[in-house]
Amino acid sequence: MNEPCCRRYRADWLVAWAYLIGAGLLLLGWQAGASDASAQQEARRKTVDLLRRSQNESGRRSFYLPQAYEQIQLGLAGSKADPLQHGQWLETLWEYHLLNDDHAQARQALERSLQFLTAAHADAALIDRITSNLSYSLILVGEVAKAKDLLRRAIVSASQHNNRILLAELYYGLGDAYRKTGERLVAQRYFEAAYELDLASGNAMKISISRLKLGSLARDRGEYRDAIDWHEQALQVFIDERNYRELVTYIELARDHAARGDLKLARSYAQLALDDPRGLPEQRIDASVLLLRIANDQRVRAVEPTKNAARASRLVRDIEALIDSSSARQKSELARPTHQLQFAEQAIRHYALNRDLTNVRMHGQAAIRLAHRVASDLHDTHDDALAWLTAAQPVLNEYVKAIYELDRPQVLPLLETYYAQQIAPAELRHSGVVGRAYEAEAIEMFERYRAARRTLIDTNAALDRLHPDTTEPGRRQDAKSRLDQALRELDRARDAYLTMYRPAAVSTPPKTQATFRPQPVPSPDVFIRYFIQESISFGIALAGSEIRYFDLPPRSTVQALVQRSLDMLSAPGREAQVETTLSALAQLLPRDFIRKHGGTKRLVIVPDDVMQPLPFSAIDFDNQPRSYAPLVARFEVVRARSLSNYYAQRATTSDASGKSADIVVFAAPLLEGQPLDRVQPRSALSAIPNSLAEATSIATIFAPRVITYVGAKATSDVLLAPEVRAAKVLHIATHGYFSEATPDIVGLVTSGGFLGFTELFSTPFSAKLVIVSGCETMRGKDYTGWGVRSLADGFLSQGAGSVIGTLWSVSDAATAALMESFYRHLHRGAGSSAALQAAQRELIASRRFSDPYYWAGVALASSNRGYDQHSF
């Protein structure tokens, strides 16, 4: 009896020992693992220190980098069984490739790192940090859209965890991405947000890095003294810390002084940076391009022309070698797109000064291809494509200037080809296009964006209500601070929503860009195209097969003329001053050319963006004392986008069905009881009774072909309905929203609240004619060279044939009278441009509305001549 029992106790004792031994082994294993992880971390710390020393210690890169690479290879080999450690060693490998200017390999290292860290369920902050690093490499290999998307996602993640140190780094990264793609105002706000977080952390190095960017943005705004102050503050910290960013700051200071015109000091700073052995190809290219610019400037000023020509030739060769070798390492023609464009601008200048047309064309066409390829990459992310093309505009300006001087007949084909590819409106959309997996969260993100937009509009309205002369400075400053904060919130809400956005799949490849071939301008038209920039400013006039080039004042002068006209026309009753201003605008017209073609009835104008707000119809054509002869008294005036598109053959369709309404009128939305005082100042949102009169007169003239939505029925859903977008004529008579303080936000007041640009243009329009008779519906955000992103432009971009809009806050009564006359002439068979001219002439002849304030603010823009001649 006892033996089995003793055997059982002995067995239990053995089992207990086995458990204890196993637990001990597990503990030893855990301790060994912890010890190994600690050893890995210490090895990585030492390796990173080697990498940093190779970057910061002058002339020591060839000594430290091989040591660091050897340690990285050992670390990667020793961490294969531990995804967390292996992922972090791959991040260290990224930094090694970065110092070797191999961003293709650097990108691959970080993409593998993210795979390992995700599999290891690594801390979100670690993943977000590596995502930030990856975005930097993506930008340098030309994948800017993906870089921005990654940064936006990381910001959403870091915000959820309230990681302020990481958020500062991510704000800085996204700000840098926005600046590289031309959105300087957005970049400014992200850099300021990063700077504030850095100040709170007290980290002198990070504070100085943010100061670098804030100084550069100050220079972009022309605030050169502020830029120098920011950069000198940062420089002192980098010198004290013996940090390689010292030479980056030399480059920024060189740019500051070059912008001020102090070329001697600028050259010394740039040369100092170029000679510093710590410089990577990125800094060497920056410094060399700046030295090339200075050499070109000196040649233009005839300062040592032979010496500077030789210096420029040598720099062009050196920069080409640097860019080509970097592109070869990345295996991408898109590598360093910003650097490539900056170099192309100065290379074109250099070869133009040498009158070397072959090399001018080679560099110009290469720059155009690069600009369009990056724009295509950015097409699905907000309006980044337009911002990027605006940032690339200086290169085109130099190219156009060189062609204008060396091969003038090719200027028009160049402009028509470059601008023929129109960029679609902003891609912010509602959750319907996002996809099922994201829909619930996308709706929440979109509503947050709309709430931020409402707050911004409300805040801007509150600032507008403060009188600039009588309000205490403290109150105005407080209101401006609230506006800045509202702008930041809108940026973050928009970027958060974009992390949910998924563009629709493209079913067909993009069309190859056709080359422009000149064609005669049909009688009785004169076609005028403007190109207004600071360094080169001219117009091109065509009639039949004849072409005329005419020089114009620089952009700043034209801008001042346009703004003065808007100031004078902002209210009626300034006849003498207005006529003087409108006479001064006559210098912008090729009057002799127009007079030569005496049978001219229509002026078709492609305005540069700076001329977009200009009331062409009111320009005094004769410029005679005591005799005001507005342009519209003699000519129909039409705005177009290009010669080739406007005169292209358009397929015609029959309008004889009569089975559905030809005209849809949207007017007099219900304001009472709605929270619309948040959209504009209360004074601006007063009732618009004459919009109801517009609706009534249109219905009377065209009955029974009209469907009318007024009052409570004038909701946002109406303007989003497919059948309304398909009407032959769509007439919208409601308040428009535009503010120069917040040019990104444009939209329409409806009975449901506010319909913004992004919702309104989420799907196409097929209307032949859209009339938007609210205030400032042709105003919006300027994209240099690419026009103004206004409501009118949005309708054209989304398929409308022609659009009639407004250039300023128009008179309700006068606009109603003009529209009643316009529709009468339209009903009698006139085309839209002829009907608008006839209506404006009637107001000029009237006693009540003869002042240009009442009629000159209404303008017609068209995508094709066939729409203007179409009879409704």
**pLDDT < 50 stretches:** 1-16, 25-30, 429-437, 505-512, 654-658, 673-685
Strand proportion? 5-15%
Number of helices: 34
Overall pLDDT, averaged? 86
What features would you highlight for this structure?
34 helices, 872 residues, Nucleotidyltransferase, domain 5, six-stranded mixed β-sheet, 59% helix, five-stranded mixed β-sheet, alpha/beta, disordered N terminus
Helices and strands in order:
Layout: H1 2-56, H2 61-78, H3 83-99, H4 103-119, H5 124-140, H6 144-160, H7 164-180, H8 184-201, H9 204-220, H10 224-241, H11 245-260, H12 263-275, H13 281-300, H14 305-330, H15 337-353, H16 357-377, H17 384-391, H18 393-406, H19 411-418, H20 439-464, H21 473-498, E1 525-532, E2 537-543, E3 546-551, H22 555-568, H23 575-584, H24 591-596, E4 602-606, E5 636-639, H25 643-646, E6 663-669, H26 689-702, E7 706-711, H27 716-720, H28 722-725, E8 729-733, E9 736-737, E10 747-750, E11 753-756, H29 757-760, E12 769-772, E13 780-783, E14 787-790, H30 791-797, E15 802-806, H31 812-827, H32 832-845, H33 852-855, E16 858-862, H34 865-869
Parallel strand pairs: 1-4, 4-5, 6-7, 6-8, 8-12, 12-15
Antiparallel strand pairs: 1-2, 2-3, 9-10, 10-11, 13-14, 15-16
Helix pairs in contact: 1-2, 1-3, 2-3, 3-4, 4-5, 5-6, 5-7, 6-7, 7-8, 8-9, 8-21, 9-10, 9-11, 10-11, 11-12, 11-13, 12-13, 13-14, 13-15, 14-15, 15-16, 15-18, 16-17, 16-18, 20-21, 22-23, 26-31, 31-32
